[in-house]
Amino acid sequence: MFDLEKPIADWRQQMLTAGIKSPTPLEELEIHLREEIERQVKSGLNDQDAFNFAVQKIGQASALKSEFAKAGGTGRKMFWCLLAATTFASCWMQFGQSPAVAFVYCVLIAGLIAASCIDFEYFIIPDKITIGGIFVGFACSLLLPQLQGQKILVAGMFQSLLGIGAGAALVYFILRTGKFLFGRQRIAFGGETKIIFSETAILLPEKTIPYAELFYRKSDIIELQAQSVQAGNHSYKNVLFRLTPNSLKIGGETFSPDPIPHLEAVCSEIVLPREAMGMGDVKLMAAVGAFLGWQAVIFSLIASSLIGSLVGVSLIIARRREWSARLPYGPYIALAAIIWIFGGSRIFDAMFGQ
Question: Model's pTM, two decimal places?
C-alpha cells in the first residue's frame, strides 16, 4: 500500500538539499502540495499518481530555489549594502576629525545592520554579534573613553559597564513582564478545524507558524482540547493535546516529538505561546550600552518603542500584518542606536534638561 507521508518527507528533504531552508516558504510549499494532492484524489487519481502530478505542477526543487532567490535575495542585499555604505560615509563625514572614533562607530553600525538583516529574515540575533559586541564595546570604551563622553580610561570603562547593565536589565524586565501579561494567545476557529503539526511548523487554516516563532524556552506550550488526534498509526478521541519543545502529551500518554514528523489534530480552539521580545534583543541592547553608555540605552529604548509602534500600526492599517503577528524588534533598537550616534544625545539632553 502506498504510504503518502513517506514521499512527502522525501520531497521535503529534496527541498532542503536544494537550499530552500527558510521555514515559512518551505511550509507554504508543503501546504500547496498537500492541497493539490487532495484535489487530484477527489478527481479520481490514486495517492501515488496524485502525488506525482502535484510535484510536477508545483515544480522541481532547483527551479523553486531559483525563483525564491530572484524574488527577494538580490533586492535585499542591495538595500543592506546601500544602507551600510551611506551610514559609513556619514560617519566619516561627521566624526572624521577623530578617525579612531569614526572607525569604532562604523564597526558598531556594521554589527547593527548585520543584526537587523538577520532578525528580519529569521527572527534571531546571533550571539556572535550581541555577546561579541558587548566585549568589543567594553574594550573600545576602555581605550577610547570619548565614546562615553569621558576623558579618563577608567571613567569610560565604568560608563560602559553601566550601559551593559542598564541595557540588559531594562529589556529583560520588559521581556519578562510581557511574557507574564501577554504570553498566551488563544485562537478560536468557530468550529471543528484540522491542525497539522509538521517537523518544523504548525499549519493553521490561514497561516503557517514555524516552531522557532513559538518556542523560546522549554516551558512554552502549545495546548488544545482535541476532538481527534492522528499521530502515525495511533488515533485518539477527545483528549488534551500539549506540545512543548521536548515533549508531546496526548491524553494520558507522553512521547518525544522527534520520532513523529507529522500529526493532525481536530479542534475548535488552540492556545499558542507568545513572546514580545527575545533574549537576542536583551543582549543587543546590552551591546549598545557597552559602546554608547546608559543614556543611549534609555534613548534607544524609548525611540525603538515609538518606531516599532509606528511601523506595526502602519502595517496593520495597510493589512500587511495582523495585531497578533510578531515583528522583529532588533532592527528598531539598531535604528534608535544609529540615531543616537548622529545626534540623539542632543535630543536626550533636551528631553531630560541636561
Answer: 0.65
